[in-house]
Amino acid sequence: MSDILITGAGPAGLSAAHWLSRQHIPHLLIDQSSFPRDKICGDAISEKVLLELEALWPGSSAGLGKNPAFHPSFGVRFVAPDGTEVQIPFKENPENPAGYVVPRLEFDHFLAQKLDSDYTTALWNSRVTGLTKTELGEIQLEIGNGASTRRITTRLLIDASGERAVVRKKLLRQPFSRQHFSAGLRSYYDGIRGLHKQGFIELFFLSEAQPGYFWIFPQAEGRANVGLGILSSTVARKKINLRRLFFDLIAHHPELKTRFAAARPLTDPTGWGLPLGSEKGPRSGDHFLLCGDAGALIDPFTGEGIGNALLSGRLAATQAAKALQANNFSASFLAGYDSELNARLRDELRISYSLQRLAARPWLFNFVLRKVSRSRFLQQTITGMFSNVDSRKQFRNPLFYLRLLFG
Ligand SMILES: Cc1cc2nc3c(=O)[nH]c(=O)nc-3n(C[C@H](O)[C@H](O)[C@H](O)COP(=O)(O)OP(=O)(O)OC[C@H]3O[C@@H](n4cnc5c(N)ncnc54)[C@H](O)[C@@H]3O)c2cc1C
Q1: Among 169, 229, 247, 262, which is 20 to 30 Å from 326 by CA?
Q2: Ligand 1 mean position to 309 CA, how many Å?
Q3: Total-model pTM
């Protein structure tokens, strides 16, 4: 029996474990892997991630640049389907990078190494194979390590098992819907020409892959994380073979074919799913909270999920402390977690969902990017949107669209 058990030691589960430890709350943390371990991802960490790290370890984000695995990024380059490009710095006058690209092998290990063994009991190489409810309504997990199987009951399960989403799939039997899920492929390359000197990440929006994009995210020592992500309902409807399209783009896209002419793949492209935050529904229930990808919290436009995973882990730990104190693990009590998540993320996720739908119309996206490429005001507005999430609310302001159309 464990009062609190976390499934999954990605950013969401590790954040929950750190914040529980901060409150001196013992807990079990279970992962099917041991660290360091890879996770298929674009490896880009945004300012939201830096803020969460800063909340955990004040002053830590300033030191990240000294870690050779953390490659600084100062902005983003968007390329529209018609080739129009816009380069946007993350901040107007950057002193410190607002983002990094860091392999998840290193980033998750960096977080896991800081676990506090006084409060976290970690069970690595332990896979959750089944979930059931006990007569008291608590959750019983079946956990296998290859050699044997054991059962552990918990009063509160914080599910941070990522896209594998053990509560959703094994207990609730509610798979993610294709309209709110993207399919992604990731590879590593070196020798790509023209990587941005300030580490700008590059997103190529493509007429054959909407909504979605091909990316090049520069890393240390001239390497880059390269990938492709497309909404799963589009993949199914257009019968897209993601792997074939990935190699076709590298071979034939007017810009990419030149840039990849002398490039060398370091890994085979590997696929993984992205549960998007446009998915509706509660992220808690009787005796459980859903964090990170297990709670479908990825930004539907950018595909960014690490920041929301860390944030949701923090909020889950706060809710867990309240539940322990009140001795109340009911759905109605744990819904306080949903309220906190909604207060922080609902607007942001809605706006990103609108942007995702805009990007699904290549002609409209071409038009908008042409406008942005010619307007200093719009470029500054978008820069502001990276450094201040609240300023994304301008997308709700009709004046913004008037300036976009006629500015
Ligand atoms: C192709 C691709 C590119 C992406 N690019 C970016 C990007 O550049 N920036 C960004 O911010 N986000 C990106 N994302 C999203 C990001 O990877 C996720 O949002 C993030 O990893 C979510 O963290 P998490 O802790 O919720 O889950 P995860 O990181 O997936 O961690 C889940 C953990 O649960 C464990 N687990 C799973 N099932 C079980 C089980 N049955 N038993 C025990 N343990 C289990 C796993 O081993 C894993 O350690 C990308 C995603 C994909 C697929």
Answers
A1: 169
A2: 9
A3: 0.95
